[in-house]
């Protein structure tokens, strides 16, 4: 499946943000988007290659395998471990590039 076919007639229903735990306290973001048809995509950094998947679970596996943790799931224990204050962290806003590379993986 190519990029044009994957994104045709889709709208984003949710965006999840991930942090690379090996880099903390430096913030290296990953992003997962869930679309209205249940498919999802993942990206390791802004402007980097997009990966398309059949669903959210597969899109999250690729991030977690690369040591990314879901930002929403972080808590006080993570604040202590990584010497960060979650309340001070500002979630990024990424702009996608029309020329951004894409690969459909389907399942992972």
Distance between the termini: 15 Å
Mean pLDDT: 96
Q: Which parts are unreliable, with pLDDT below 50 for 5 consecutive residues or more?
A: none
Strand content: 25-35%
Q: Write down the secondary-structure element order.
A: HEEEEHEHE
Count of folded domains: 1
> Main beta sheet: strand number and arrangement?
6 strands, mixed
Helical content stands at 10-25%
User: Given the C-alpha coordinates, what overall shape results?
Assistant: elongated
Number of DSSP helical runs: 3
Over the alpha carbons, how many angstroms does the gyration radius reach?
14 Å
Query: What is the number of strand segments?
Result: 6
> Strands of the biggest beta sheet: in what spatial order?
5-1-2-3-4-6
By helix and strand content, what is the structural category? alpha+beta
Explained architecture:
The protein has 108 residues and is an alpha+beta fold. It is built from 3 helices and 6 strands. The protein has a 6-stranded mixed sheet, covered by helices on one side. The longest helix is centred in the middle third of the chain and has 10 residues, at 56-65. It is elongated, with a radius of gyration of 14 Å. The mean pLDDT is 96.
